[in-house]
């Protein structure tokens, strides 16, 4: 019963204080990851137009990426496990590490700022602020495009920055949350199909897919239960298999259906237009729908916590 209470405490701490304003450990980790990539990636000289890149199936680059992943993640996960041992910080360490792994308040602040920009009619500011949340190009997006990008990011990043960390915390305590968040960060940094990272980031992308497989589907189900359930489940079943990502598809299809919104469509990544399948059903998103998406994530989080506490209480009674 103590671990669910520790998870609840970390969620509340993240809600109240958010991420450290300076010297966040993930910033330092990102610098280490950048250094490892520059040092170990055979295609580190690749340019935006592809010169110097390697085929995405290049075995040497894939092996280098796997080695870099291990070097980046395992030492910190081992340190986290040591800190959370009863002889060290114990449950206090679990709470602190999960708090650092969560990004709920940060996601809320960034997404809400984009929504406020759109409602105020300040499209240039909305384009600039949504660029902090998405990897697509935002300079030429119209209001609908900005709102769509922000809602998609809210649904998907909610699964990563909140629910994924909670799931692995439930599985392995603070060390599990750290392991997951570092793996997720490496996917965000290396998991792109570009000439430079297509092969090197293969391990990071596949490992992140594996770690998110179960939590993504639990998130999709929670989104469905907290919104238009029948529509969300139908969109998940019919649309998610056509999405490129095995985990983002269920999350965004169910989330879009729960909100009664139509997401997906064309987006520009790294100078190339990608035509993505439509997700959800209903109207195109607008600025006000960003707040609705944040409320959906929040309701799903409450549902997760209630179910976790109920299961823990039941296990305590039975065993």
From TrEMBL:
InterPro entries referenced in this protein's UniProt entry, alphabetically: Cobalamin_biosynth_CobD/CbiB
Location (main, coarse): membrane
Domain of life of the source: Bacteria
Keyword tags: Cell membrane, Cobalamin biosynthesis, Membrane, Transmembrane, Transmembrane helix
Pfam families reported for this sequence: CobD_Cbib
Record carries keyword Repeat: no
Subcellular location: Cell membrane
UniProt membrane topology term: Multi-pass membrane protein
Annotated metabolic or biological route of this protein: Cofactor biosynthesis; adenosylcobalamin biosynthesis
Annotated transmembrane regions: 63-84, 161-183, 300-318
Signal peptide: none
Sequence similarity: Belongs to the CobD/CbiB family.
NCBIfam families: cobal_cbiB
Function text: Converts cobyric acid to cobinamide by the addition of aminopropanol on the F carboxylic group.
Protein name: Cobalamin biosynthesis protein CobD
Gene source species: Rhodocyclus gracilis
Taxonomic classification: Bacteria, Pseudomonadati, Pseudomonadota, Betaproteobacteria, Rhodocyclales
Underlying gene: cobD
């Amino acid at each position: 019963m103590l671990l669910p209470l520790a998870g609840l405490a970390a969620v509340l701490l993240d809600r109240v204080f958010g991420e450290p304003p300076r010297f966040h450990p993930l910033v330092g980790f990102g610098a280490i990851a950048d250094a490892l990539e520059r040092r170990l990636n055979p295609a580190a000289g690749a340019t935006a137009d592809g010169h110097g890149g390697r085929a995405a199936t290049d075995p040497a680059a894939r092996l280098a990426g796997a080695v870099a992943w291990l070097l980046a993640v395992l030492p910190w996960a081992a340190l986290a496990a040591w800190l959370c041992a009863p002889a060290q910080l114990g449950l206090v360490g679990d709470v602190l590490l999960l708090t650092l792994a969560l990004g709920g308040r940060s996601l809320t602040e960034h997404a809400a700022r984009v929504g406020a920009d759109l409602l105020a009619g300040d499209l240039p500011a909305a384009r600039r602020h949504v660029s902090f949340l998405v990897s697509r190009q935002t300079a030429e997006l119209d209001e609908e495009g900005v709102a769509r990008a922000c809602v998609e990011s809210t649904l998907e990043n909610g699964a990563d920055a909140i629910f994924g960390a909670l799931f692995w915390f439930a599985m392995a305590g603070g060390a599990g949350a750290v392991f997951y968040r570092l793996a997720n960060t490496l996917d965000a940094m290396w998991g792109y199909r570009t000439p430079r990272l297509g092969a090197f980031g293969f391990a990071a992308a596949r490992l992140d897919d594996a770690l998110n497989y179960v939590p993504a589907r639990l998130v999709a189900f929670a989104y469905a239960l907290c919104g238009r359930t029948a529509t969300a489940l139908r969109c998940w079943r019919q649309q998610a298999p056509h999405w490129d990502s095995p985990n983002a598809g269920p999350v965004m299809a169910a989330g879009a259906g729960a909100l009664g919104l139509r997401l997906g469509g064309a987006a520009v990544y790294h100078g190339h237009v990608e035509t993505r399948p439509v997700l959800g059903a209903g109207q195109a998103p607008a600025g006000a729908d960003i707040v609705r998406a944040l409320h959906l994530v929040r309701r799903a989080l409450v549902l997760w916590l209630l179910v976790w506490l109920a299961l823990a209480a039941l296990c305590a009674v039975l065993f």
